[in-house]
Amino acid sequence: MRILVTGKNGQVGRCLMDQGDSYGFNMHGMSSSELDITNIRNVDSVISQIKPDLVINAAAYTAVDKAETDMKSAYAVNETGPKLLAATCKKLDIPLFHISTDYVFDGESEIPYKETDTVNPTSVYGRSKLMGELAVRNTLSKHIILRTSWVFSEHGNNFVKTMLRLGFERDELSVVGDQVGGPTSANGIATTLLKIAKQYEFRAQVQWGVYHYCGAPYVSWFGFAEEIFGECVRLSLLESSPELRKVFSVEYPTTVKRPANSRLSTIKITNNFGIHPDDWQETLINVFNKLKRSQ
Ligand SMILES: NC(=O)c1ccc[n+]([C@@H]2O[C@H](COP(=O)([O-])OP(=O)(O)OC[C@H]3O[C@@H](n4cnc5c(N)ncnc54)[C@H](OP(=O)(O)O)[C@@H]3O)[C@@H](O)[C@H]2O)c1
């Protein structure tokens, strides 16, 4: 089966490209310069040339704070892009797998969010991603929308790599302790999408719709940072951990207020596809080992 991947140089895009062959797929990865998802002509011509059996959209505008003042670009990539991809997939009668975010929720709930819970994004990024979800759902019935959270990998920019950098630079670090979520490896997201693609290849029919997928167990950013530094020291990536100070979100103001509760319930994806959340403590060690090998 031929799979076209947009945003091949992003965290998830790279992991999809790394793993796709091992699932027996013929992977066609596209960078933003090879396929700009906001450009209708580009989308049409590339997809009709490659003739994929499935498109995975790993492209997105992910700069959460910058999106507040760069709304046009955020909506172009996160809403118009998926809409164009969905329309082209509909013409070709092929499915689109699209990735979304916990930021479609306001984080006020006391329990993990289910797919059917009310959305209420509180940022431009969250609203643009929600509009992208709606564009896909309203255009194409054959879709998987995978909402995920707190993505980390050895690639690109993410919390794990920021902590590692700050660990070299500082003796003391303040980390937010009142926001909780499921850290998710980009590799785990790629595996999840490819496993669903495999089920589609065999059965030609899957239960389309919105799914939640994130790493387990849930943890605060502070708890995640503790684990990151513990592993860094154990694997000799750092000599010692900086002193960690647990702070409240109000003490660490950011342009966008992050959801206090980013926990996503993964029951539906387990029931429908037999996919279980990764243990992020294990996937974190894999990421550090890859970083160590690349040193
Ligand atoms: N990162 C997180 O913590 C997080 C959390 C929840 C959900 N998500 C979602 O997970 C998905 C993957 O995130 P990620 O962390 O892998 O993202 P990422 O590393 O920021 O990669 C995004 C990719 O999209 C590409 N892109 C941007 N504009 C494009 C355009 N107009 N046409 C084609 N490609 C374009 C970028 O290419 P260039 O580099 O060339 O611009 C980049 O390679 C996204 O849908 C994101 O919203 C992420």
Describe the structure.
By secondary structure, the protein is of the alpha/beta class. The chain has a domain at 2-157 and 183-215 and 263-278: Rossmann fold, CATH 3.40.50.720. It has 9 helices and 12 strands. The protein has helices at residues 11-20, 40-50, 71-92, 124-139, 159-169, 186-203, 221-234, 267-273, 280-293, and strands at 2-6, 26-30, 54-57, 96-101, 143-148, 151-152, 172-176, 180-181, 184-185, 209-212, 219-220, 243-247. A 6-stranded parallel β-sheet has the order 2-1-3-4-5-10, sandwiched between helices. A two-stranded parallel ribbon has the order 6-9. Strand 4, helix 4 (124-139) and strand 5 (143-148) form a beta-alpha-beta unit. Helix 5 packs across helix 7 (221-234). It is globular and about 55 Å long. The two termini are 35 Å apart. The model has no long low-confidence stretch (mean pLDDT 96). Bound molecules: NADP nicotinamide-adenine-dinucleotide phosphate. NADP nicotinamide-adenine-dinucleotide phosphate binds at residues 6-7, 9-13, 31-32, 35-38, 58-62, 77, 81, 99, 101, 129, 148-151, 156, 186.
